[in-house]
Amino acid sequence: MKFTIEQEQLKNALFIVARTSTKSTLPILANVMMIVDRDEGDIQFTTTNLEIGTTCWVNTATIEEGGSVTVPTKTITELVSTLDNGEVELTLDEKTVTLHIKTNSGKTKSCIKGIPVDEFPQVPTVDKDAVVTIVIGAPVLKQMIQRAVIAVESGDTRPILTGILISVDGNKLEMAAADGFRLSICRTLLRAPVDEPINVIVPAQALIELSRLCNDIDPVTMFVAKDGNTVIFNVAKIELVTQTIVGNFPNYNSIVPTSHTTSVITDTSNFLNACRQGSIFAHDSNDIVKLEIVTGDQQLHVYGQSALTGNNITTIPAAVIGNDMSIAFNGKFLKDVLSVIKSAKVVLETVLATSPGVFRPTCDDDIDANIDANIDANTGGDTNSDTTDATDTTDTNININDGIGKDTFIHVIMPMHMDE
Hints:
It is built from 8 helices and 25 strands. It is of the alpha+beta class. Helix 1 (7-18) packs antiparallel against helix 2 (73-82). The protein is elongated.
């Protein structure tokens, strides 16, 4: 095996696959497999942790001899990242399974001990004739993942909840995640409908890795095996393969409130900053952040307090419809959802202090104009009828790149008792 490649291209390929290479009782899992195909004119870089596999192809190298080897991912990645720009030559000594690396300038010469590819685990694959194929814009998919993943369970006591449910029916794509305290639901419309429905639970870690691979140009192609056990994502010359989580995802639709008695619309960044301030003081009291919703003053008060450090209250203007209310949520949960809502205004809807809170973005220009008028005037009383209609809307327009219809995001958080 012998080939020459630009340092920047080699570095980029290694960075792409390095994250799915992990330390393990199996030393081979800490290695990257390199397969050089002279006939095809490309080099394949692959890593796996037995649950997720990432492969990147590079076809810009000058190949003299084909071959294959696995070498420690961390070693070669760190080495290549320190090399000067320019061509790098890699040659394999097959007898000693040693990869020799030298720069074109001759300043750096290195030898990395490898392991034969025979010991590298086989990365799962699927028969492309026995899959359901979905194509979606990368920015849309990336935003859906970022919004869903905040509700994924972090522990491993309930494996089902460590994944994200992906459901597709016709041209409707939905992602859902829940951890028992909060629920994220993201929906979008596909440009082309699927031939048959899809319901798979994909490990959250696989989707997080996928979101890092997404760019603003190339669409993502998703291949779902018809047996539901394997999913492959393709982005340009990168492929991510993952096994699905077997089991039944909880019926989350029954958790989403279908009505509300109080609605608050306020500036997203101000609300987020107020929650950050309250959480500083609430850290020693189970991170309980209390929201005081005042209809008459059209204000939202955000409280955080601790018997040890003191207390904080931040008041922000809001368009409030309905009943006055005091309700408390986990401060981290509030910061998580407000951090992934990119619209200028955010909607909070609830029924009682003991009822779940529903958070969602709003991006309608007419709605925003009415909200701004109420917030700027900071006057009491009911807002106009257009705003009232807006808060009752269940589908919220989010204009993101290649969405062809209404993309919606709903996040439900269970309340906390004031005395917890």
